[in-house]
């Protein structure tokens, strides 16, 4: 080990310095497209962990939760981020990325935040509710294979909306909405969504909320929960907006060294103030939300941190 590397490790935790021989020299966190919350949040916690552990690490643009599960499972990435719906499908071998192949080498690491499903239109579109969306409307659902692209089309079909399906990065879709090339963007991302915040600076937009009946219908059909987008999330909101949401978790390759994942989990869970500087969605990135994982096995290193800090994870839920 070089003196420079030793100095870097010394800046991290004592655990990192004492148990680093079997650690990778660097790591990558799979995020999603630019303009979305995953990219900002994931790149941020990657940098935080890299600084705390004294090794090289960063975020990588990907297709989002489904692709992250596959890349982590295959060993292409050390870490990633996913939502519980895609995780359940992946474990069952129903992932659209790898149909018939259970992606069981991706383990839960720590709770991130809830992903609300919300709809954005231009103020002058005449669309004031989901039922107002005209037949054949061009709707952008985010990157292909993302949580939004996987679930939002099915949700809108359940609610009787007929549409022309479009995909792309959130930034690209925001530009298309502003230019009149699409009619609606159906967002599923942590709030505030950077692309929406940028849109409302540049033009007048409207956030469309679910009615109580629409919310109940979607909750009955899909693995989502009731959610309210707080009024202070966007300038365009006059009050809370009714929505549905799905939990997100950070994931780690199950065969990564226990001490490495323990140290990475510790870095995030014990630096909430720094996580809040990365993205406001981090207000939900707290240990108490560990029980929102009802799907994935826990990585032994992550489970060790939670158990040491008083949270109960049964042995049969640890990989």
UniProtKB/TrEMBL annotation:
The UniProt record lists the keyword Signal: yes
InterPro entries (alphabetical): TRAP_TAXI
Keywords recorded for this protein, A-Z: Signal
One Pfam match: NMT1_3
Statement: the UniProt record of this protein carries the keyword Hydrolase: no
Domain of life: Bacteria
CDD domains: PBP2_TAXI_TRAP_like_2
Residues annotated as signal peptide: 1-18
Identification of the protein by name: C4-dicarboxylate ABC transporter substrate-binding protein
């Amino acid at each position: 080990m070089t003196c420079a590397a030793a100095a870097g490790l010394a800046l991290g935790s004592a655990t990192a310095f004492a148990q680093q021989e079997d650690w990778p020299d660097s790591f990558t966190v799979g995020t999603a497209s630019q303009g979305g919350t995953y990219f900002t949040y994931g790149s941020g916690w990657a940098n935080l962990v890299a600084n705390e552990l004294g090794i090289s690490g960063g975020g990588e643009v990907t297709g989002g939760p489904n692709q992250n599960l596959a890349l982590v499972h295959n060993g292409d990435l050390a870490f990633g981020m996913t939502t519980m719906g895609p995780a359940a499908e992946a474990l069952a071998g129903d992932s659209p990325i790898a149909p018939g192949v259970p992606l069981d080498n991706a383990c839960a690491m720590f709770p991130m935040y809830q992903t609300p499903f919300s709809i954005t239109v231009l103020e002058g579109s005449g669309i004031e509710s989901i039922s107002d969306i005209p037949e054949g409307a061009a709707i952008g659902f985010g990157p292909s294979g993302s949580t939004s692209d996987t679930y939002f089309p099915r949700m809108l079909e359940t609610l009787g909306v007929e549409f022309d399906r479009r995909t792309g990065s959130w930034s690209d879709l925001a530009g298309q909405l502003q230019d009149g090339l699409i009619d609606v963007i159906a967002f599923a991302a942590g709030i505030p969504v950077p692309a929406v915040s940028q849109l409302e600076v540049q033009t007048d937009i409207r956030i469309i909320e679910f009615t109580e009946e629409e919310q109940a219908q979607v909750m009955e059909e899909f693995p989502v929960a009731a959610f309210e987008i707080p009024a202070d999330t966007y300038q365009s909101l006059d009050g809370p907006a009714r929505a549905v949401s799905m939990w997100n978790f950070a994931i780690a390759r199950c065969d990564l060294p226990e001490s490495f994942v323990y140290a990475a989990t510790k870095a995030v869970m014990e630096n909430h103030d720094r996580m809040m500087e990365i993205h406001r969605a981090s207000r939900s990135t707290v240990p108490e939300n560990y029980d929102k994982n009802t799907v994935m096995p826990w990585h032994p290193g992550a489970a060790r941190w939670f158990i040491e800090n008083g949270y109960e994870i049964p042995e049969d839920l640890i990989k």
